[in-house]
């Protein structure tokens, strides 16, 4: 899910909005799918979840900064990022 950190409302993100994402390819893929559903980024249609990386993002119009980190650290750093895309078992 997408959790608010420094920001608590959804809208058009400002340039440089920082979003924490898991650092494992398949989990990062699922996290970026959430951002794609919001229209914040676009990924290659043929992206493989097993090998996903930020190189698979083909459009990032809001210049969102994705901070990859270990799942267990995401909750702890939530106050330091704008949003966090955190797996349910860690949230």
What does this 3D model show about the protein?
- The structure is a single chain.
- It is globular, with a radius of gyration of 12 Å.
- The model has no long low-confidence stretch (mean pLDDT 93).
- With 91 residues, the chain is an alpha/beta fold.
- The strands form 2 sheets. The protein has a 4-stranded mixed beta sheet. A two-stranded antiparallel ribbon has the order 3-4.
- The chain has 2 helices and 6 strands.
Brief account:
The chain has helices at 25-37, 71-77, and strands at residues 2-4, 18-22, 42-43, 57-59, 65-69, 83-85.
Separation of termini? 8 Å
DSSP strand count: 6
The number of helical runs is 2
Strand content: 15-25%
Assembly context of the chains: single chain
How do the strands and helices of this protein lay out in sequence?
Elements: E1 2-4, E2 18-22, H1 25-37, E3 42-43, E4 57-59, E5 65-69, H2 71-77, E6 83-85
Parallel strand pairs: 2-5, 2-6
Antiparallel strand pairs: 1-6, 3-4
């Amino acid at each position: 899910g997408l959790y608010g950190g420094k920001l608590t409302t959804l809208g058009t993100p400002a340039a440089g909005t920082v979003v924490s994402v898991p650092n494992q390819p398949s989990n990062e893929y699922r996290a970026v799918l959430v951002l794609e559903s919001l229209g914040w980024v676009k990924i290659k249609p043929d992206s493989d979840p097993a090998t996903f990386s930020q190189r698979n993002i083909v459009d990032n119009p809001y210049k969102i900064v994705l901070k990859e980190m270990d799942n267990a650290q995401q909750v702890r750093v939530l106050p330091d990022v704008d949003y966090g895309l955190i797996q349910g078992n860690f949230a």
